[in-house]
Automatic annotation (TrEMBL):
Organism: Paractinoplanes bogorensis
Signal as UniProt keyword: yes
Family: Belongs to the bacterial solute-binding protein 2 family.
Chief site of localization: other
Subcellular location: Cell envelope
Record-linked InterPro entries: Peripla_BP_I (IPR028082), SBP_2_dom (IPR025997)
Sorted UniProt keywords: Signal
Domain of life: Bacteria
Name assigned to this protein: ABC transporter substrate-binding protein
Pfam families: Peripla_BP_4
Domain (Periplasmic binding protein) ranges: 23-282
Amino acid sequence: MAGCGGSDDAGSSGGGDDKITLGFSQVGAESGWRTANTKSIQESAASAGIDLKFSDAQGKQENQIKAIRSFITQRVDVIAFSPVVESGWGTVLKEAKDAGIPVILTDRAIDDPDTSLYKTFIGSDFVAEGKKAGDWLVKEYEGKTDPVNIVELQGTPGAAPANDRKAGFGDVIKADPKFKVVASQTGQFTRTDGKAVMETFLKSQPKIDVLYAHNDDMGLGAIEAIEAAGKKPGTDIKIITVDAVKDGMTALSEGKINFIVECSPLLGPQLMDLVKKVQDGQTIPQRVLTEETTFTPEQAKEVLADRKY
Ligand code: GYE
């Protein structure tokens, strides 16, 4: 198993000490958000005195399923994971349940209707994030009647934040027919793909007014493509992204991005708290929502110096 980052006293769970062992399966390292999320989880496990077995799935569901099975075999106390896609978790989570190991969903949801497969889901409301992006756009073009051509860079296909950010945004803009999503494709939440797909959009679309990218990294990649095409990001093409990581906030403060919807990756402290409560047999809420805001370029300038990630 590709485990690293935790302590190396493998197999100690259930042994002499009363340290909680947490098996955590991470999506990968696709974005600035993910890197900050991993750091938050590793640091807060260390300071909470939790023995973390960390596994990086490199973007593959099959690796996550393998990691979860390995955590079950190792008899960890609690399993937490950030599901790369929404579907296909029933079998392995049933195995964890049968083994009596509680599971916590972190960051991303699953679509299984059986909520007894996990104790809680901690993370953002991605539909609300998409709506905030749409609300900004509606305001920005208030009173105007000309068509607004939008291109969309979607996250990983099948991932909750990709599905929900698309849905929330679409829900808001459909109220006004001047808004047209003329092209929408996945950029896999990465800078490289964001850039490559934006290049094809720029070639195939005669007029692009707005780019909506499901995360900062794809938006940052797209900015490179826009500049290479001799256009000014933020002016010739307005850009909305989600996350608010430092690189995104920097581009926002420079006017290259126009609006960012925040999605906080700092889930570690709350997760460790929930792990302790679950281990303790306490009842915890089925859903723990992350608190988030939005940023304009002016607001980005104010907070940029203190932005930790
Ligand atoms: O927005 C994106 C990352 O699941 C909320 O995954 C997370 C998303 C985040 O790759 O940058």
